[in-house]
Amino acid sequence: MSGGSFNYAYSTVDEFVYQLEKFIGENKESEYQYSKEVIKKFEQIIKESERLALLMKEVEWRVSEDTGDDNFLENVKEIEKSCKRG
Question: Could you tell me which residue, 35 or 80, shows the higher pLDDT?
C-alpha cells in the first residue's frame, strides 16, 4: 500500500465522508431536526471533504516518495479541475 508518511490521514476524511453520507441517507426524508438547508450544506461539505481527501492522499504519496514532483503536480491539477466541475 502506498503512502504512510502521515499514517494515512486522508482515510480519516474518507471515513467522515462515508459516515456523513450514511447519516444523510438515513435522515434526509424524515421529519428530523435538520432543515433542507442544513442537509444541502452537509452535501456541500461532503464534496469539499472528498476533494480534501484526494489532495491529502497526493501529498502523502509524494512525501512517501511513491510519486514524483511532476506526477504530484499533475494529479493535484486534475483534482482541482475535476472538483470545480462538480
Answer: 80
